[in-house]
Fold this sequence. Notes:
The protein is mainly α. The protein has helices at residues 3-21, 32-45, 50-58, 61-68, 82-92, 97-116, 120-123, 126-134, 141-147, 153-165, 176-200. The chain is built from 11 helices and no strands.
Amino acid sequence: MSQTTSITNVIARIESMFTTYGHETYGEDCTQLQHAQQCGTLALERGLDEELALAAFLHDIGHFIARDKALDAVDAYGYSRHSDLGADFLEQHGFSARIVEVIREHVRAKRYLCAVSKGYAERLSHASRVTLAQQGGPMTAAESAAYRRRPNLADIIQLRQLDDAGKLPDMQCPPLTFWLRLAREQLEASAAADASTRSARPSARIE
Length: 207
């Protein structure tokens, strides 16, 4: 299978999941598609780069994967371990390490902020407070101290804040096709970077 065909297949699967499950709400006042679009759009409006905006759009894709796999633990609020499930899927299909990391960490970032940011937990939506309990609750002091040392914490917190903000019922956003185009461009850029790295490696010499 060619690289182009592989990327086309990944984009088609992402489109299919958003089309099939994007109407679900998981306890919020907007659908999952609206939530994804709003998070990504807010990222662009705040001057963040397209890579982080795409991560914001894709951050909850693990909910859809859990539904696709018919996992038993899916409830009215989605799948509590969706961050790892989504990050694993995106990593396996060629998305950048930065996108994978911030998506993998967006649940733990909520637990971190609940522990270190006064008033943060009270500002969460009802659904986010319910899932916080499912996800382990606020971090302990020791966990928070360790988490604070993460090298990409600023990106992770940015995504978490976008997740919290993108829950409006009527916000105008670019359509699904816009985000699918960004996803394709990101995969093509990652594939080109990987190919360049491989070609730059010295060939093994046979004596």
